[in-house]
């Protein structure tokens, strides 16, 4: 290794230096080997605990390297000392030792950088996992709270306008949560990239599938509720319009009957008889509407239908009153016209 004409003392000194250098290199290499094995071992991430374990393993490797930094400094210092001694004796080993020392230091820096990068990635994955769990809690909380409320509103249609408003908000929230779920899916893909895992962790697969099922159920319930509300509104509006129309018509009938009674003409009597036929004709319409309302009440529990029921009862009474007035008016007119006719004779 060294030129023969250098003193034995110089040779022994260099051999001791070389031995110390190799011993320090061996210590540094062991640290590097241990740290490198952490980087190359790919952790299969099944759940959040696996990810936490991977972060912890990388952090331990980082701490180990930080603790052994003194060994690296000693190795570098010893290497520089050895190089200066080799330079003095013009040893051909100078270049080899220099390359070896620089290579070891470079590897240390490279491994340290990779561990830091892995920790950042895995922590990023852990943060995303927390986000996913938070989104899961939000969607589940909304589903557990809002679905029973919607069912309650639809089963007790006490205020159809309020229910319609709630349904609009609910539908908007379903769309909002669907977007949230797409964000969650995107985050899961990012997490797979960060953890360098081609497969979606089973825990996250389950969460995503479960939330999709909940949202699909919410969409189905929304459509059912819209159908129920549409049917209820259409039928109750039809009954309400019928009551309003017939109430207005009966008011006009009563007015006509009074006019006919005052006029006391044959034309008036004919008109009263026509009104009687119309009242009889409307009787069947009122009966069928009453039946529709009864069937609606059996189908839906609603305070609104109770008030329609009261209005319907009022209409039937008005119709009966109009029929009685018609019969009285007809009898009175016939009597009056007969007297008038007999008087003329």
From TrEMBL:
<keyword id="KW-0677">Repeat</keyword>
<feature type="coiled-coil region">
    <location>
        <begin position="272"/>
        <end position="299"/>
    </location>
</feature>
<feature type="coiled-coil region">
    <location>
        <begin position="167"/>
        <end position="224"/>
    </location>
</feature>
<protein>
    <submittedName>
        <fullName>Uncharacterized protein</fullName>
    </submittedName>
</protein>
<keyword id="KW-0175">Coiled coil</keyword>
<keyword id="KW-0472">Membrane</keyword>
<dbReference type="InterPro" id="IPR018159">
    <property type="entry name" value="Spectrin/alpha-actinin"/>
</dbReference>
<keyword id="KW-0597">Phosphoprotein</keyword>
């Amino acid at each position: 290794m060294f030129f023969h004409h250098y003193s034995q003392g110089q040779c022994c000194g260099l051999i001791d230096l070389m031995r110390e250098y190799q011993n320090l290199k061996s210590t540094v290499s062991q640290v590097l080997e241990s740290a490198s094995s952490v980087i190359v071992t790919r952790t299969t991430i099944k759940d959040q605990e696996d990810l936490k374990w991977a972060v912890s393993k990388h952090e331990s490797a980082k701490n180990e390297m930080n603790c052994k930094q003194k060994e690296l400094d000693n190795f570098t210092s010893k290497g520089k000392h050895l190089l200066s001694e080799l330079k003095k004796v013009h040893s051909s080993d100078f270049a080899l030792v220099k390359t070896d020392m620089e290579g070891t230091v470079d590897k240390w820096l490279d491994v340290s950088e990779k561990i830091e990068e892995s920790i950042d990635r895995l922590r990023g994955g852990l943060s995303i996992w927390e986000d996913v769990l938070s989104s899961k809690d939000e969607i589940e909380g909304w589903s557990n709270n809002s679905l029973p409320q919607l069912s309650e509103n639809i089963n007790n249609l006490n205020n159809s306008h309020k229910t319609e408003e709630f349904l609009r908000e609910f539908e908007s929230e379903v769309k909002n949560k669907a977007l949230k779920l797409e964000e969650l899916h995107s985050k899961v893909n990012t997490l797979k990239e960060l953890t360098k895992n081609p497969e979606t962790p089973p825990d996250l697969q389950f969460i995503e599938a479960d939330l999709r099922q909940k949202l699909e159920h919410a969409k189905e319930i929304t459509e059912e509720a819209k159908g129920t509300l549409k049917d209820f509104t259409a039928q109750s509006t039809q009954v309400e319009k019928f009551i309003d129309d017939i109430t207005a018509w009966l008011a006009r009938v009563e007015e006509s009957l009074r006019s006919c009674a005052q006029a006391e003409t044959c034309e008036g009597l004919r008109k009263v008889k026509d009104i009687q036929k119309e009242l009889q004709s409307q009787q069947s319409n009122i009966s069928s509407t009453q039946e529709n309302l009864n069937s609606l009440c059996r189908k839906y529990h609603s305070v609104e239908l109770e008030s329609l029921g009261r209005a319907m009862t009022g209409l039937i009474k008005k119709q009966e009153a109009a029929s009685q007035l018609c019969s009285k008016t007809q009898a009175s007119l016939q009597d009056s016209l007969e007297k008038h006719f007999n008087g003329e004779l």
